[in-house]
Structure formats: structure tokens, C-alpha cells
Specification:
This protein has 456 residues and is α+β, with helices and mostly antiparallel strands. 42% of the residues lie in helices and 10% in strands. The strands form three sheets. The chain has a four-stranded mixed sheet with strand order 6-5-7-8. It is elongated.
């Protein structure tokens, strides 16, 4: 820059410059104090505190601004500050801000303007309500999975308004609900999920046992065991002409797996789904009379209403197995249905205890004779905590005896879901009890009996 100015004498004319003030302004270096620049007097002259404004000197660096706190002047009180002037926006502008308002992305002034407008504009108020509801669905902090009890509540609400001509028996409602929940879980599965490995777990003679399969293999297992109920109702057997080594759940499942030319795939969902619908429709059309039918499981039998509860229980347990295999959350059944499943297991415990005692797997009755049917005997109080909980008095010396609080010798407290996991063979008996008081042998016998009810 200095070479340019040395090329001309101060008395010569510069063809690129004007005259007068224009010359002074154009020759002032950037960053100098000329013409009101920071750190100068504003008249283009040197005030003596910094470098010269002459062009042969380096540019002058402005001094930092003085903070309001450094001026020594009193700061204004917050309550003395005037409120910001409200925004005055047109209707179309306010309408375009509704989406940002629903997402809480507007400034304070825009929010105030929008909310003031909503008080007098019905169409915008309806649109804002719709958008805010949509944002609530998109930003739910909890799981997007439906509450297990939602189906029951919706159906109850509908049935209060219009009773069904063909109602589903109450004892079939848990099966209807659990199969519907599992079907919803499977709906969006791809090939990778259907072939995800699953390990089925249960207890056999107090030994933890497992069997490796896939998600599709689990559904084939449910299809073949649900077929026991289908055959009892006169429906088609999903095994068809395939012979089973034993008419037990495990025997039927192994026969179905062997008969498949290839490992089961997503195609197993359709027959399982159709069969579950047929079961619910059949017990609904035939009314309450079918509840007295007996469903054979090979080495034991259950009344139809208990067999439907058993199938609902196993459907939930294996749905959790599937959900764990694909790393997806899955909630327990509704408290009402969970309570019925726990009640079924509690009612089966005395017979299971007697069978284990005959096999030498449970402690003897301490020299006592079997209690006559209907008479009170030694009793264990089973307390189930949490949703679906309650108390059950379990007779210890005879399946025909009556549980009695006066003859209580032990007390066990368990969480409802944990008790079901124990009965499913997913929790070792030694780790299941949350609290226990009384006869240790009786407590051990009941916990192992609960685990021994599990099966593939």
C-alpha cells in the first residue's frame, strides 16, 4: 500500500481519487480511527494514543469495547425492563407456525402470538390439537407396544354397548388374548427373524433341560401341541397322518419337526393362526358345555377350560422366548389373565407333589397317612405378589386334602411373573423364592414341584 502513495507527491493529482472529504476517506487505512471508527475521535485525526493514521503506518487496531458493567453506571432492574412488544402476524403466517408450535420449536414471542391466535380461531385450534396429538404419538417416552390389557378393555367397552350374540367363554379369553398378542409380534418378521435361534428350556426330573430350535420351530411346536385341544374338539389334527412316538407335547412336536422336509419357515404362521381362530370360534359356538371335555396330554389329562388356560400360558412363555431371540420387549399378560394362569398352576401342585412323592423325588409325609379327601392337612401358604397375585393354600399330604390356615407349616412369597417363570422351567427352584418361612422340606418340595410342571 505504501508504494502506491509514494508514486504520487502530495501536490500531484491522483486520477483514482476525488477531492476534499472523499480523498481523506479513501486514503484512511482499514481499521483506523477515521470517521467514527472505534478507538478514535471520529474526525480522521490522530488522538495521540495509538499509531498514526498516515498511509505509511500499519493499520490501527481498535480497542476492545467497554462492557456495561465497566462503565460504573447502575444496571437497570429486571422488573424495570419493558415487556417485549407482542408480534403481530397475519393469519397465514400463524397457521404456518402451528407445526413448529406443536413441536415446541417456536420462540417465546411466536409461541405467545400463536396461542393468542388459537383462542379466537376455531380452524387453527382444531389443527393445533390434531398436530399436538400426532407429536405425542411420535415422541412417546414409553414403549410403543400395546398394553397387554388394552385388548381386554376395548372388547369390554364394546360389549357393554352391544352384547355379542356368540360370546367367548371367560375361560377361553386368556388364550384368545395371548394368541392375538403373539400374532401381532410375528406380523413384521422377516426371514432373518424367523430363523433366529431359540432355546426351549424346561426341567426334567429336577434337571435343567433345553432344546435348540428357531422362531419358526417354536411356532411349529405351538401348532402341534395346540392340536391336542383341536382333536378333542373334533377339529383337524395339524399332524395329519404323521405318527407320533408318544401322544405327549414333546412326542407330537418331534414328529412334526421330523416330518418337515426342511426346517420350518414363516409358512407355519398361517396354519397356527387359523387353528387358534378355529379353537376360539368352536368353544364359542358350542357354549359352556365343551368346558367339561377332557384333553389328554399323554401322561395326564386336563379339563378343556384348564387346557385352554394351559395353552394360553405356554403361548405367552414361548412368545417371550421368541421376543428374546429377536431382542424385542414383551410384556406379561394382563393381571386378570395372569391370575388365572397362576391359579391353574396352584391347583395342579398337590397332584404333582403326590406324583413326585411316589417317584421318590419329594420328601415322605413324615410318617403321616394320606389325609382323607376333603379333610384339612399340612398346608403351605403360597403368596403371590404383584399384578395377578393372591394367596393359595397348598395341601401337602394328599391331592384330595383341603388346605387349611390352621395347619399351615410353611409360607412362601413370590412375584407373580417369577412364579410363572419357575413353572415354565426358566428359573431354578433354588433361586425362585423371594421369601420363605417354616418347614424347609415342604418349601423345597413345592418349589421343585412347580418347576417339574414345565415341559417342552
Amino acid at each position: 500500500m505504501s508504494d502506491r502513495f509514494e508514486a504520487y507527491d502530495e501536490h500531484d493529482e491522483d486520477p483514482d481519487k476525488g477531492t476534499g472529504d472523499d480523498i481523506e476517506e479513501r486514503s484512511t487505512p482499514v481499521g483506523s480511527s477515521g470517521h467514527g471508527g472505534e478507538g478514535g475521535s471520529g474526525d480522521g485525526t490522530d488522538d495521540g494514543d495509538g499509531p498514526s493514521d498516515r498511509p505509511d503506518q500499519p493499520p490501527r487496531i481498535p480497542l476492545p469495547r467497554a462492557s456495561v458493567e465497566d462503565t460504573g453506571r447502575p444496571l437497570p432492574e429486571l422488573d424495570e425492563l419493558p415487556p417485549p412488544a407482542p408480534l403481530v402476524l397475519e393469519h397465514q403466517v400463524l397457521k404456518s407456525l402451528l407445526g413448529a408450535w406443536a413441536l415446541a420449536a417456536c420462540s417465546a414471542e411466536e409461541t405467545a402470538a400463536v396461542e393468542d391466535h388459537l383462542g379466537g380461531c376455531g380452524s387453527c385450534a382444531e389443527e393445533a390439537l390434531r398436530l399436538r396429538g400426532a407429536v405425542g404419538l411420535l415422541q412417546r417416552p414409553e414403549s410403543l407396544d400395546l398394553d397387554p390389557g388394552l385388548r381386554t378393555r376395548v372388547l369390554d367397552s364394546c360389549l357393554e354397548r352391544r352384547p355379542p350374540r356368540i360370546p367367548i367363554p371367560k375361560w377361553a379369553l386368556p388364550y384368545d388374548a395371548e394368541t392375538a398378542r403373539l400374532d401381532a409380534l410375528l406380523q413384521d418378521f422377516g426371514d432373518a427373524e424367523w430363523h433366529a435361534p431359540v432355546r426351549l428350556r424346561w426341567f426334567d426330573a429336577d434337571e435343567a433341560t433345553s432344546r435348540r430350535t428357531t422362531v419358526a420351530g417354536v411356532m411349529a411346536h405351538l401348532l402341534s401341541v395346540d392340536g391336542l385341544v383341536a382333536v378333542a374338539l373334533g377339529l383337524d389334527d395339524p399332524l395329519g397322518e404323521v405318527p407320533a412316538d408318544a401322544p405327549t407335547p414333546a412326542g407330537r412336536t418331534e414328529a412334526y419337526w421330523r416330518a418337515s422336509h426342511f426346517p420350518p419357515t414363516r409358512s407355519v404362521r398361517a396354519p397356527w393362526r387359523e387353528q387358534s381362530h378355529d379353537l376360539v370360534r368352536t368353544v364359542s359356538f358350542t357354549g359352556g358345555t365343551t368346558g367339561k371335555l377332557t384333553v389328554p396330554y399323554g401322561d395326564f389329562s386336563l379339563p378343556l377350560h384348564d387346557a385352554m388356560l394351559d395353552r394360553a400360558f405356554e403361548c405367552w412363555v414361548h412368545a417371550e422366548d421368541i421376543a428374546d431371540a429377536v431382542d424385542y420387549p414383551y410384556e406379561p399378560p394382563s393381571p386378570r389373565h395372569l391370575n388365572r394362569m397362576i391359579d391353574l398352576a396352584a391347583r395342579m401342585l398337590p397332584a404333582v407333589l403326590a406324583d413326585r412323592r411316589q417317584k421318590g423325588l419329594a420328601s415322605p409325609a413324615h410318617g403321616r397317612h394320606l389325609v382323607p379327601a376333603g379333610e384339612p392337612g399340612r398346608t403351605l401358604r403360597l403368596e403371590i405378589e404383584g399384578h395377578g397375585g393372591g394367596e393359595w393354600l397348598i395341601p401337602l399330604d394328599s391331592p384330595a386334602a383341603t388346605g387349611s390356615a390352621e395347619h399351615e407349616v410353611a409360607h412362601v412369597a413370590l412375584d407373580g411373573v417369577e412364579f410363572c417363570q419357575l413353572a415354565a422351567g426358566h428359573v431354578p427352584p433354588a433361586e425362585a423364592a423371594a421369601g420363605q418361612v417354616g418347614d424347609r422340606d415342604a418349601i423345597r418340595d413345592v418349589l421343585h414341584a412347580a418347576a417339574s410342571m414345565s415341559r417342552m
